[in-house]
UniProtKB/TrEMBL annotation:
PROSITE patterns (alphabetical): MFS
Molecular function per GO: transmembrane transporter activity
Membrane topology: Multi-pass membrane protein
Domain of life: Bacteria
SUPFAM superfamilies membership: MFS general substrate transporter
Residues spanning the membrane: 39-60, 67-87, 93-114, 126-148, 154-175, 187-207, 219-235, 256-280, 286-307, 319-339, 345-372, 393-412, 418-437
Protein name: MFS transporter
Organism whose genome encodes this protein: Microbacterium hatanonis
The entry's keywords: Membrane, Transmembrane, Transmembrane helix
UniProt key word Transmembrane: yes
Major localization listed first in the record, in broad terms: membrane
Pfam families referenced in this protein's UniProt entry, alphabetically: MFS_1 (PF07690)
Length: 443
């Protein structure tokens, strides 16, 4: 029952992340706002998620894992219903930001629930089952989201979350486990505020500059406030008693190098997913269902071969995989430049998606292993949370810069520019890995 609760509570967060991209064109058609609205629908969620995901662990220590999980589930359900009923784009964006707060409580709390109740080989198996089930959301999301958009309404996409959340809350009542709190634990509220303002101010400037221009006091003012707040956040982490992001973790070479590589690689993934999902509908004219399924081959490759790649990386070390994988994925992104006015998925899109998928398969598992393997196992939880936050923030910034990259609209030329930038980010991730990652000696 513990494992089922952990899977269901994470599943809704992963599912929501995959269905939203498919629904973006329909949302902007219904509520208006064009590319700016589409960017904010994604980034409003990622701002609060990326800023607060590090706080979830501290909240679990102070309030208890089960309490935090219940708060996250109820908040996610309420905001999902509000998003589905949104009368305006502005209301929807505010609800997405609040949904990100709830989402920040779900994934770390569900993993903490597993690590607290399973030990040894059983824990490894439980995490494996959790990973497989949440990966299933990556397959189900685009298909379900596309079908709802094409046959029913984009609004119903957000109501999908309500049933699994209701079931999870029922199972939590049936579970009857005592909750645990850590004596003396504190939440770094000031750090959370500084991080949120830092990300929010910077992202606001990046998204709205296309409308207001860089010379606008609103743009350069919000960028200045954002950068100063984020600098203050880092300074706060240096001296806080219970920091959200312990900076001493970055003394480990593979940890800081792996996180730099993560920033480039996951920024590229978010940029590619956003632009491809929108262009296939608005530019190539595919229905939402087919646009959602377009990237499915890459996900299938990851599911089939990630465990094998992880085993080989454990044998040979992660450096080779983290170098070759991103560069191969960059080649897949460049293959998407073959997309032209006479659109053909099978010859213009599928080859690039397959090469891209093989590159990701070589990258993701060794990347995670290198980062977590660089840190003592007693601190693997916070190390994983930091890496998760880095990947979310990288995606947040990449989506915020879409208008700058594509030139204002995701037409064919804009799509090609985004493909080149995606390839460049991936290639930089591979170079960073080659120069920085070190293979540790096997016992």
């Amino acid at each position: 029952m513990v494992l089922t609760i952990a899977i269901l509570s994470s599943f809704v967060s992963f599912l929501d992340g995959t269905v939203v991209t498919v629904a973006l064109p329909a949302i902007s058609r219904d509520l208006g706002g064009g590319l700016t609205t589409q960017q904010w629908v994604v980034d409003a969620y990622l701002i609060t998620l990326g800023a607060l995901i590090l706080v979830a662990g501290s909240l679990s220590d102070v309030l208890g894992r089960l309490v935090v999980l219940r708060i996250g589930l109820i908040g996610f359900a309420v905001t999902s219903i509000a998003i589905g009923a949104a009368p305006t784009s502005e209301f929807l964006i505010v609800m997405r930001a609040l949904q990100g707060v709830a989402g920040a409580l779900l994934v770390p709390s569900s993993l903490a629930l597993i690590t607290a109740n399973f030990r040894g080989p059983a824990q490894a198996r439980a995490i494996g089952v959790w990973t497989a089930a949440t990966t299933g959301a990556m397959i189900a999301g685009p298909l379900v989201g596309g079908l709802f958009v094409d046959l029913l309404s984009w609004r119903l996409v957000f109501f999908i979350n309500v049933l699994p959340i209701a079931l999870t809350l029922f199972l939590l009542v049936r579970l009857g486990h005592p909750d645990h709190r850590r004596e003396g634990a504190r939440v770094d509220y000031l750090g959370a505020i500084l991080c949120t303002v830092g990300l929010g101010g910077s992202v606001f400037a990046l998204i709205e500059q296309s409308a207001l221009g860089w010379t606008s006091p609103v743009i350069w003012g919000s960028m200045t406030i954002g950068l100063l707040s984020f600098a203050a956040f880092l300074l706060r982490q240096r001296f806080a008693r219970d920091p959200m992001m312990p900076l001493d973790l970055f003394r480990a070479r593979n940890f800081w190098t792996g996180n730099v590589a993560t920033a480039f690689i996951y920024g590229a993934l978010s940029l590619n997913g956003f632009v491809l999902g929108v262009y296939l509908q608005q530019g190539a004219g595919l229905p939402a269902t087919l646009a959602g399924l377009a990237s499915l081959p890459a996900t299938v490759l990851m599911i089939l071969f990630s465990s094998r790649v992880g085993a080989l990386a454990g044998k040979w070390g992660p450096r080779l995989f983290m170098t070759v994988g991103p560069i191969l994925a960059a080649g897949g992104s460049l293959l998407l430049l073959s997309i032209g006015e006479d659109f053909d998925y099978w010859w213009q899109v599928l080859p690039g998606i397959i090469v891209f998928g093989f590159g990701l398969t070589l990258t993701v598992s060794p990347l995670t292993s290198a980062i977590l393997g660089a840190i003592d196992t007693s601190r693997s939880g916070i190390a994983s949370a930091v890496n998760n936050a880095v990947s979310r923030v990288a995606g947040l910034i990449a989506v915020a810069m879409v208008a700058l990259i594509v030139g204002g609209s995701i037409d064919l030329g804009g799509f090609h520019r985004a493909a080149v930038v995606t390839a460049a980010l991936l290639a930089i991730g591979g170079v960073v890995s080659f120069l920085g990652i070190r293979n540790t000696a096997r016992a």
